[in-house]
Amino acid sequence: MKIAVCQFDMVWEDRKANQAKIAEMLEKCPEKNAIDWLVLPEMTLSAFSMNVPAATLDDSDTAFFSGLAKKHSLNISYGGVQDGYNNLITVDKTGKTVSSYSKIHLYSFADEAKHYKYGQKQHTFQLEGMNVTPAICFDLRFPYLFWNTAAQTDIFVVIASWPAQRAEHWMTMLRARAEENQCYIVGVNRTGKDHFLPYSGNSMIFDPLGKIVADAKSDEGITVAQIDVNKELVTKTRTRFPFMNDRQKTPPPPFR
Fold first, then answer.
1. pLDDT tens, 211-245?
2. 200 contacts: CB under 8 Å, gap ≥ 6
3. Averaged confidence pLDDT in the chain
């Protein structure tokens, strides 16, 4: 599966302007016909806004992504608010929604929980024959969320609005989640700045050994992984070094 990450400087709370930017970037991407899965940042059409009406997706927004998927024959993952939840939505090549994950760890420093509802459960879905488990931004800081589903996951996908001042944390934790769970991880962040913070991009894909498969650095646009992401490497890595078999099912007693 050929995966592409798309990072850009979002227009604050302007869903139509951001739709236009995404459509233009995809049209101009020289490798667009090779892409199987395009992944976009958190709250793709509004930026990370606590203005609930501005961030809430309507029928025309979901139709935009479905239409884009059908037009270019690719799977798309994007972010937006649905029913009061900060969601990561994935549509397949026919434009059908195959997953909608609600962010479990809301970002208290931005009072996110005062505006949006906490997600209650994780799930894994199938995409191009691979098992994908979604997460959003602040979720990345909580490794147990990834351990919970590692055994049935080939790829973790994390979309974010991660500030530039903590870019090293972002890159370090993406690699760590790939290495400790022996699977791929796709992390997509935004670039530019909003009314509060700058963002560095650094959208990346790591393989199960922690090697970089794609690195968008700080450039706006679409970066396509130069290798096919495949289930074989996940299986091979876990077979050669099956350390997950040694995980304790019951946590050790607290330190005294």
1. 999 999 999 999 999 889 999 999 999 999 999 89
2. 162, 164, 167, 189, 191, 218
3. 97
| Enclosing H/E stretch for 80 | strand 75-82
Q: Measure the CA–CA gap between 20 and 11, rounded to whole angstroms.
A: 10
Q: What type of residue sits at position 44?
A: T
Number of independent structural domains in the chain: 1
- What is the CATH classification number for the domain harbouring 67? 3.60.110.10
**Alpha-carbon distance 37 to 55, whole Å?**
23
How much is the pLDDT for 226? Answer: 81
Domain assignment present for residue 253? The answer is no
Task: Tell me the per-residue pLDDT of 75-110, one tens digit each, with 9 for 90 and over.
Answer: 999 999 999 999 999 999 999 999 999 999 999 999
Boundaries of domain holding 70 = 3-245
* Distance between CA atoms of residues 196 and 213, nearest Å: 31
**Which burial class, exposed, middle or buried, applies to 251 when counting CB atoms under 10 A from its CB (0-12, 13-18, 19+)?**
exposed
Asked whether residue 232 is assigned to any structural domain, the reply reads yes
- Give residue-wise pLDDT tens across range 32-75: 999 999 999 999 999 999 999 999 999 999 999 999 999 999 99
How many residues comprise the chain? 256
- Any domain includes 213: yes
- What is the per-residue DSSP string for 136-172? EGGGGG-HHHHHTTGGG-SEEEEE---BGGGHHHHHH
Distances in Å between the Cα of 237 and the Cα atoms of 66, 229, 245 are 35, 14, 13
CA distances from 147 to 19, 97, 140, 247 (A): 35, 26, 11, 10
